[in-house]
Amino acid sequence: MKVELPNGFYRVSIKALILDETGQKFAVVLEDNGWWELPGGGLDWGETPQECLSREIQEEMGLTVTAVDALPSYYLIGKNMKDNWTLNLVFRIRVKTLDFVPSEECQELKFVSPQEALNMHSFRTVTELAEMFNATKHTM
């Protein structure tokens, strides 16, 4: 069902940038619809991006977030599959372990290079991040 939003309103999602040990690849998750997406989800009313990512990563992946950058690394603006305008803020995060627990929303987790991400069956957010990704921006 398409939700009618007034002009000037965006659906805001907070996405996680989880890097592998080399800093050259980022995590994507396979959703139940067969599409790859960045981990994270919708920002709830009154919630901070840091609270949102901690909640979403725990709910969907069973992972404990230990740190979230104060500012987003990337922002992505475009229409989602329901033809609504969305704003996706991508924050680099760290997690306690990568002991991923599959759920209905996140069935698989893997790290991909930007080139690999461009050749996946994925949401536009993955493709857009792959096109913008700059590993030198993320010193470990």
How do the helices and strands line up, and which of them pair or pack?
Blueprint: E1 11-17, E2 26-30, E3 36-37, E4 40-42, H1 49-61, E5 65-68, E6 74-79, E7 85-95, E8 108-112, H2 114-118, H3 124-132
Parallel strand pairs: 1-7
Antiparallel strand pairs: 1-4, 2-3, 2-8, 5-7, 6-7
Structural notes for this entry:
It is a single chain. The chain is an alpha+beta fold and 140 residues long. It has a single domain, classed as Nucleoside Triphosphate Pyrophosphohydrolase. Helices cover 19% and strands 31% of the residues. It is built from three helices and eight strands; from the N terminus they run E-E-E-E-H-E-E-E-E-H-H. The strands form two sheets. Strands 1, 4, 5, 6 and 7 form a five-stranded mixed β-sheet that branches. It has a three-stranded antiparallel β-sheet with strand order 3-2-8. Strand 2 and strand 3 form a beta hairpin. The longest helix is centred in the middle third of the chain and has 13 residues. It is globular.
The name of the CATH superfamily reads Nucleoside Triphosphate Pyrophosphohydrolase
Task: Give the strand content.
Answer: 25-35%
CATH architecture: Alpha-Beta Complex
What structural category do the secondary elements indicate?
A: alpha+beta
